[in-house]
Amino acid sequence: MKALRLFLVCVLVTSASAAFCDVAVYSYAGNWFQDFYTPHPPNPWTTNNRIIASFTVPAPLLNSNYGVQLTPLTYSISDGVFTLTPTNSSADVFRISSNSSGQIVDWLIVVVASAILNDNSISTASVTNVDQATDVYFNTAKNSTAGSWRMSIVPTPEPASLITLSFGLVMTAVRRVRLL
Question: DSSP states of 65-108 as a string?
Answer without folding.
Answer: -TTSBP--SEEEEE-SS-EE-TTTEEEEEEEEEE-TTS-EEEEE
